[in-house]
Amino acid sequence: MTAESMKQTAATEFTNPNLSVLYSADDIKARIAELGAQITADYRGHDLVLVGVLKGSCVFMADLMRAIDLPMTIDFMSVSSYKDGTVSTGDVEILKDLSNPIRGKDVLVVEDIVDTGLTLTRLLEILGSRGARSIKLASFLDKPEPRIKKELNVDYKGFVIPNEFVVGYGLDAAGRYRNLPFIGIVKNPAEA
Ligand code: IMP
Ligand code: MG
Question: Which residues have CB less than 5 Å away from ligand 2 (the ion)?
């Protein structure tokens, strides 16, 4: 059997032996319930809109919103970060803007992961000029080690992780693995 055909048949995607589980679906479920309860308490009486940053936040967004027991709305943005090689430059292009104005609203930006913080910092600057009553940040993962924007505050975070490249639960490697119900580390990226 060739290496190429092994890739197709050796395992299902969810049991891929090249992945090691960092947070299981149960770990994630328990943590999201806590985050949702905290956000519910903090935003009671406010005009909350969750703004998901596509595509990575889609799974977190879907779970988090169902853990927030308040009247609220959602919206989405899609941005592309310009990379200089593998390093984010901090320049951000809006690929899809919000559908509705955020003037007077309490905005909670929902992200998959904060790494260097360059993308989020620029996005928060852009949203900051639109007259929202407040803007805060919820990120499923916080990877503080590579942070360039040290002053960026992650108001709500699911898990703080080591400086490893992780996939699953919305996060991808070249578009793959977003559908994994857990967070995993790709053991050998060359074999992915
Ligand atoms: P930064 O904070 O500007 O460096 O960019 C954060 C973005 O890079 C995230 O929204 C992800 O799309 C991507 N990213 C950073 N670290 C990882 C990782 O470990 N796995 C998958 N995507 C990542
Ligand atoms: Mg992202």
Answer: 56
* The two three-digit tokens of residue 34, written as one number: 């806590």
E strand spans, the chain: 19-23, 48-54, 73-84, 87-96, 106-114, 134-142, 156-160, 166-167, 183-186
Evaluate the omega torsion of the peptide bond into residue 136 and state whether it is cis, within 30 degrees of 0: no
Residue having the nearest C-alpha atom to atom 20 of ligand 1: 166
Average pLDDT over the chain reads 92
Q: Which residues pair with 183 in a beta bridge?
A: 23
Whether 1 shows a pLDDT value over 70: the answer reads no
More confident residue, 93 or 38: 38
Hey, what are 22's tokens? 């960092």
Using an 8 Å Cβ cutoff, are 139 and 154 in contact? Answer: yes
Please give the pLDDT value at position 11: 72
Tell me which residue has tokens 């909350």.
48
Distance from the CA of 179 to the center of ligand 2, in angstroms? 15
First to last CA, the chain: 17
Angle separating helix axes 25-43 and 58-65, nearest 10 degrees: 60
Report the predicted TM-score, pTM, of the whole model to 2 decimal places. Answer: 0.92
